[in-house]
Fold each of these.
Amino acid sequence: MRRLAAAETTQRRWTRTLSGHRRWPLVSAAGGVLVTILVLLPLVFLVVQAQQSGWSEAKHLLLRHLVVVLLWNSVRLTFACTILCAVLGVGAAWCVERTALPARRLWAVLLVAPLGIPDFVVGFGWVSLEPGLHGYLAAVMIMTLSLYPLVFLPVRTALSRVDGGLEETARSLGLGPWQTFLRVTLRQIWPAVLGGCLLVTLGLLAEYGAFEIVRYQTFTVAIFTEFKLGFDAVGACVLSLVLVLLSVAVLAGELLLRGRGGAVRSGPGARRASPRVQLGRWTGPVLIALGALGGLALGVPMGSLLYWVLHGGSSTLPSTSILGALAHTAAYSAAAAAIATALAVPVCAQALRHRNRLTILIERLAYMPMALPGLVIALGLVSFTVRYAFGLYQSSFELIVAYAILFLPLAVVGVRAAMGQASPRLEEVGRSLGARPSTVFRRVTLPLIAPGLAAAFALVFISSSTELTATLLLRPTGVNTLATQFWSYTSDFSYGAAAPYAALMVAISAVPAYLLSRRMSSVARMAEAR
Amino acid sequence: MHRSKLPFLSLLSVACAMLLSSCGSSAHSARELTLYNGQHEQTTALLVAAFEKATGIAVKVRSADEASLGNQILQEGSSSPADVFYTENTPVLEALREHGLLAAVAPSTLAAVPRSYDSAEGSWVGVSARVSALVYNTSKLAPAQLPSSILELADPRWKGKLGFAPSETDFQPLITAIVKLDGQAAAERWLKGLQANGTVYPDNETVVSQVNNGESELGPINHYYWYRLRDEVGRGDLNSALHYYAAGDPGDLVDVSGAAVLKTSTHQAAAQAFLAFLVSSKGQEVLAHSHSYEYPLRPGVAPAPGLAVLSTLHPVALTPAELGDGSEALELEQKLGLL
């Protein structure tokens, strides 16, 4: 019986999709196609390169003892970090968004800032604090501290949109606070939690820089060895295909965990703001816990920067070029963030509102860049533009597109979580009142997902502003960004001269986080006033 | 940030980025060069400034690590915008030569430095050199305790005291040298010994820092890492010193930084002029007085104060060309699980 009913629903969905009534708006479809093309570019490069390798060569590369050890290292690190990031990210987001914590907005900015610190600075800070620090636990700690904001930011945005009315109902039906959180609140923010965890997992698979300094070798090390010592893109691409397979498994797993669920609000009226939880005697412990998190994630690397400035022999005053580097970094990152966010909207809209195999596949594809080393994506773009669009080679435009591809997954997570919370019923009402799809999108959907767009923008902006690998290969000749200047000085041992550049990277990454936080507070105030 | 402002700000930033990009690009001309630079950026900046002043040819510099640039040139193939490629080590130049991407260097340029530092085929010219040496912690070890051969580092008495960076481009030449001088089996034994004794660090900068702060007691590096560390930490925090291997030892090796002209360069004359400048007295003086602490290769140009004259210090056991592209060493390291 149940299977019959299910089949009937599926059929109805198909008919609805196919009938002109719910045809995709053209713009949205075009966005989906564009995303697919952009994301497939590096993947095609990977396959074309890897194909040049014979089977015996590939076997020789893949079936090595070291490859097995490195894969195991990658997997166990990813597993532990993802779980820890989820716990820390959700916990911190709940404290900031749902309790009467003192100085909430300051915390909101401080807790995102670790994302803006280059991996190298994080690793260096820890190693100078404790020179003996290395191995698995060190890598887990350092990566958790620098990646938890990927969970914190989307979850915080999602929490700000949670309907307090549902929670109140649950409480009145006799659920305790913990049960309410687990069965009502967590269900509403689940897509954001999973999305953030997905970013952490995929990001860790492709991570390289941070582990170097704590001497923890992951699978990416094998890929870089091929590039750096063998000058062998073919071998590196064969190895990268393993990362592709791993990430396909992760993406499929997340899809299963996500299920069809996710709670949208069905009520037509205004969302009820949830009252903030008074912490009472817990205020002190919560402040200490958040202070410890912020202090470890932000304080240690910033401390090492300060040390460099004070003790570095090379600490001359930064030249005027620092302003140029700052301007380039800000402009490139903002442009990339705008493009990635704009591209994420149709991908999510289709995957959520016109759910079928194709749209889900496109949404899953959009996550792939996160799991590939930046160098592979950058070389893929080099190879493509040199052959087919030489006029764009090493132009600002190409670099911005590269950032947008690299960090599209961050935007998708931000937008998807917000769109998942917005009820499609409201859009349907708009349509039934005769509004065109574009009008519905502009007047109904956009305001509903605005915090998600802002979160997506902030995530992409922060990540782009510290990107190094693709920047070095694709920037216009003669252009410097904060990351390239920082790299240039540190690779010359001039830590003192490098420090101001790293400090600026952290500082500009605080800007979008601050704006986002201000916006969310004003939305909350408006909701409370109603 | 109001809703209506976000698209506006985004558009503004895209426009800004486009504007900024247009500042960067300019039309190609004969009085212009594009240099792909894998050498330390500060050293290159000094050389380029001196070259521009001397010739009036403008140089656009792209800096990145040499391996990325090498891979980039391989992907660019015949469309590469690069005219000159200047690197810290020669294996990457050898790899490009094997792909047929390098033009022949002018004979007079090759002749400016001893032939043993140039490409055997004349595809690249040696510009400066580093000497392989041992850094040791002065509060833990006395000079008399130090090995005279790099082979001794595999001795069990260094267990837990050694630090090394097997993924560094400076490390493969050591393996290649041992293979050439003592045979494959000796190299394999040596690597296994190092693996048993040592801590693996990501790079030479880390090796020299960790020896200096006492986490390791000694480690093989190139001489200039120690001089640069000395400059950065200051003599007060210096707990390490350099030790050179006996002459003729496989560890007694010179790593050469070289430059080449791309076959596809559309500015062949200007590119050859840049290479000639790098090995001219003027260019070599700039190198000697920069903070890089590399040895200039042109006879008669003295290195930075404090460095001994290269030719009196170390007879060269193997030429860079003999050391090849390092693929043999790489295979050995992969076989033993070091990479």
Note: DSSP finds 23 helices and no strands in chain A.
Amino acid sequence: MRDVAVVSFAQAPLEQPPGQTEAMMLLPVITEALEQARLDRRDIGFTCSGSADYLTGGAFTFVQMLEAAGAWPPIPESHVEMDGAWALYEAWVRIQHGDIDTALVYASGRADPEALREILCLQLDPYYLLPLWPDYRTMAALQAQAVLAATGRTEADLAAIAVRSRADAKANPNAVVAGDFSAETLLADDYVVAPLRPHDLPAIAHGAAAVVLAADEKARELSARPAWITGIDHRVDPQYPGVRDLATSPSARHAGEQAGVGKGPVEAAELAATSTAEELVLIDALGLDGDVAISPSGGGLVANPVMVTGLVRIGEAFRQVNAHGRARVVAHASSGPCLQQNLVCVLEDR
Amino acid sequence: MAGEPVQFMSQMVSIEYPAPEPTLVSRHFGEQLAAGRIVGHQCPRCGKVYVPPRGYCPVCVVPTTDADEVEVADRGTVTTFSVITPIQYQGQEETDDYVLATILLDGADMTVGQQRLDGIPIDDVHSGMRVEAVWAPEAERKGAAGPGPAGGLGGAVTGWRPTGEPDAPLDQYDEHIL
């Protein structure tokens, strides 16, 4: 196996000028990630992107986004109809082939929170579940109910997660919600879908992000402190949530084991939990103990740019190593209802 | 029939999306079309002129802005074309064969596609033909203006007609077939 590291990360600012296409949002982000690594677009060996055409309902929207990467003269590239974290996985595999040393990974998404309630139903099975049109908040509530019943945790425990995430997010310029909140105040809100209140669910946002990967000595050349990917894996639970125990996530557990999360001390973990209850499931599945700083950026709860959130977790984990001097950080991405698919990545300083 | 096992079920799925907000660049382009002007963005690096403007040059990958705006002619050269034979289906408004052409406007480096060609027998249409825009009456341009999903010139230009000029030589447009 070749040693591959994240050498740069850039994210679109939360405040975007009005009337922008995704390509217009992505262009400066990709430029920034490349400039951090002191690379030109033509130096990149492979480009891989993540997005979902269903979000805006435009077939082949992702092709136009390639113009932000620069595809002339023609470049080797690929796209996943998933969160950009899976595009990063493909780029990591591509670098393992040995003939290229660098890859650009980017993700973008423009999601209307109301439209998303219908759109995400299309990932459910078409026979039994889709006809009921259970929106993502309903699915999250089913899981939260299962978690509370199985663990004896309470709605106050969930609120405490939101309080911590929002306080941590004060240092994150890309958080939609950030600040000091009291659990009592949050718990006074009405349910969105019991047992979930507004603070238990993610703040949906538009977003774009880019990461540059490099191998071996190339990574050392491009970054003073690369974050080495010492393990990366992704797994899938059954598609039908009715056959799963929603209080657990076997796929996250497997991915964590395969990525080697438990092989050394973990200082921080950036989790793409998109409900407070999901965070409890993930902490258990990944075996993270009380010493681990959970989602120092605020995680997926304080800003959920759909299709970008997972790649941002890897980018935030890179920052924890690169800028904050942490030695070993876990990043997590998820897709599907109730943590159905999970990707886990371990980043280390060396 | 009662007691028969279910073999087929129909599950109609539809999603309604909010209409995408036009970008500032495309909105400005539409306003200019309504005023009878076709504008593009000239890349500050390579000098290529994009019509309609995109807000960036995809070759140099640099942003372009209003400061890079240039006006191009409402005449140009047919680079390629298709003859469409309409099949009758509900909602079909066409009855006779017609031509959609790709046109390289004078002063532009990008073609505009799917442009209706009128005023000439179909058998006489050919690449290299010089054509000029047929504008909708000014009162009808507003609202119809703005590029459609495939780019182009929206409803402000209803079609194109031959100018009668000599054909453009191939080397003036052979890099711009599509």
Note: The radius of gyration of chain B is 20 Å.
